[in-house]
Amino acid sequence: MTNVIRFTLTAALTFFSLQAWSGFFDSSPSGVSASKSRFMPVEEAFRLDADLTGERVNLTWEIEPGHYLYRSRFSVRILEPENTVIGELLTPDGIQTMDEFRGEVEIYRNRVDIAVPLKLSEAELHQGVVLEVQFQGCADAGLCYPPHRQLLSLVP
């Protein structure tokens, strides 16, 4: 019986001392390891700004260095007013690259501007629109963010 108690006590002390020292050599003051803290939240890595001018929504992403957005992974859906028709997204040509996650793709770095043509009445335009924008990008350091949805409420 004493061998079982001795083994349990030794195992518990070893486990708790490993837990206590696990963050000791991390460079961050909070004890969060560098591998967990090196990636930005998606809305910081890809800052989206939008404005509604006439029958068009202009979307602008400021893309942090070391990050990129996929040209093929943008979509826009109008939530309000419901009967608004969206034209084809007007996207500029991207940079052709071989992506480790998706193969041969076009990407954007630094900044991208996309126009979204809308068909809506003058009264609807003055009330504004609510839209859902979806996009996806990656960090060069090896993280591919999941598709991200952002809701925007715009008035002219």
Written description of the protein model:
The chain is an alpha+beta fold and 156 residues long. The chain has two domains: 2-36; 40-154, Thiol:disulfide interchange protein DsbD, N-terminal domain (Immunoglobulin-like), CATH 2.60.40.1250. Helix content is 22%, strand content 42%. It has a five-stranded antiparallel β-sheet, with no helix packed on it. The chain has a four-stranded antiparallel β-sheet with strand order 1-2-8-5. Strands 4-9-12 form a three-stranded antiparallel β-sheet. A hairpin with a 3-residue loop joins strand 10 (137-139) and strand 11 (143-144). The longest helix is centred in the N-terminal third of the chain and has 20 residues, at 2-21. InterPro entries: DsbDN (IPR028250), DsbDN_sf (IPR036929). One of its GO terms (molecular function) is protein-disulfide reductase activity. Residues 1-22 form the signal peptide. Pfam families: DsbD_N (PF11412).
